[in-house]
Every structure is written in C-alpha cells, then in structure tokens.
Input
Amino acid sequence: MSDKIRNENDEDLVEVSKAAFLSKKLKKMDANTKSRITENIKGFILGLFRWIVLIGISYVILGPVLGIISRSFFSDADHYNTMVYMIPQNPTMERYKVAYDTLSYSSTMLKTVLYSVSLMVIQVLMCSMVGYGFARFNFPFKKLLFVFVVIMIIIPSHTIMLPMYMTFANFDVLGIFKLITGSSINILSTPYPMYILTFFACGLRSGLYIYIFNQFFRGLPKEIEEAAFVDGAGVWYTYFRIMLRNATPAAITVAIFSLVWQYNDTFYARLFNISDSIVLSKRIAGLQSTIGNIYKIYDPKILELYLDAGIVLIMLPLVIIYVLLQKQFIEGVERSGIVG
Output
C-alpha cells in the first residue's frame, strides 16, 4: 500500500514538473515573441524614417532638375496655362531644336569634350605622380609641402584670381621670352593657361586629387614595390606598370571628378577669357539673349524655356558618363580614401 502511494506521489511530482517546465517554456516563448515583435516594429519605424529622409533629400536635389526637364517640353500655351504643372498638354521639341542650333551643339560639344578629356588625362597623370611621391618618398620639407597641398583645397580660387590673371597676361619663364622678344607674352584668350596649371598639378581641384592619390597609395602594401625593386625594376617602371595599375579605383574617381568639373567650369574660362566655342558651359550663359536677338522673342518667361532645353543638352553627356561608369565610380570612392 505504501509503495502504491509512493508511486502515485512520484507520478504527481513528474506531472507537476512537466507542468512547470511547460509554463516556463510558454513564458519564454511569449517573451521571445514580444521581443521579436518589438524589434520588427523598431525596424519598420527606422526603415520608414530612412525612406522619408531619402525621398526628401532626393526631392530637394532632383526636384529642380525634373522641373527643368519638364519645362523644356512646354509649348507657349502650356506655359501660360496655370493648370499645367509638370506634364505638358502640348509637348514640343522646338526648344531643343532652337537651343541646338544656337549653341552650335555638335561642333562646340566636340571641342568641349576634347578640351575636358585632355585636361583630365593630364590631371590624373600629374596628380597621381605627386600623390605617389608624398606617399612613398621622404624628402626635405615634405610635411610643409603637403600643407600647401591642403591649402590648395581650402583656399577659394577667387582669392588668387588676380595674381593668376597677371601671371598669364604677362607670361614669361625665367625672363627667357623677354630676353628673346623684348617683352613678355599674353596667353589669355587661349586654353594654354589651363594646360600649364594642370601640367604642374595646380589646376582645377588638383589639391583634392593629390590628396586622394596620396591616401590610396599609402594604403597599398610596400611589399609590392619591394618585390619589383628586387626584380630589378626602376622607380618609373614600378610606378607606371605596377602602382598606377593598382591605383585604378582612385584614378577612375579622379578622372570622373576632373571631367565633370572641367566640363562645367566657368570660373577659369571667364578668368582666362577662353573662347566659348571651346567651353560649352560658358556659352549657355548668353543663350537667352542670343535667341532673343535672333528669333525676336522678348518674353523672358518664354526665353527661360529655351534656356531649360539648353541646360538639358549640356547635362546629357554627364548623365551618360555616370550611367556607364556608375559601378566603377562608387567602388573608386569607397577604396580611394575619400570617406572613412
């Protein structure tokens, strides 16, 4: 009888322990479920906030661009119709035709591309050399000279525009021209000042490009060069055949930046009075007045529509370049040391 009672008590204890175990498990599952739900809610709120911020920033940046593209297709009736906002009711290509002819778009674009690409190639080559020198060699006043590179990034170009103008208005090299011809030469109204500045790594945004290359070369292992030197390679062979090839991401980043900024530059183009037949971005400034005089259009609001079409024509090559090189550009920015 006592054994039977003992067995019954043991069974009761087992049942109680099972019940307690199931209760704890259910409580734990409830806690995990609540935690998972809370995390999902937090993730949803953060994701929603992130999308709101991205959409807001995109609207601020792309809103004016979309407005320009939309207005470039407006007819006169669409412009004066207050009910038309973004989508024209009577779209027309007349604005593009007139802007294309007035800008002499084909010939001017070809010259602009050749001008910008040639400066870009020189800038990539020279700035990479300077950046490599700062990253790999020790020489007197190295830190002081690199401070000057940083100053090139910080100081606005407007502060040195007068000395640059006077330098190229009375251009001479160690007095050689004055000794031979009796006077210095004026090389303004030509693209030569830009080529000279770029060749000596002092051109448009060259300080930034030197910094990018310096950061990238510093991140490359020195064993690459040491192995090349052991194999008998010289400094120039190592630089051109090994280091510059490894710096492709930085070179692509600098090339795209340089091409875009050279293409859009109007400050140096106006300072050195470079012909607007070479710099398309300079010609766009007088598009409205030119069209007004040629086609006898006196309404400034209508002239703005032609200007919008001209702006779209100028933006188009840059958009194509970015679309084609988007992947390489993003990888180059990530690996070139611009961020981080």
The longest helix spans residues 2-71. The mean pLDDT is 82.
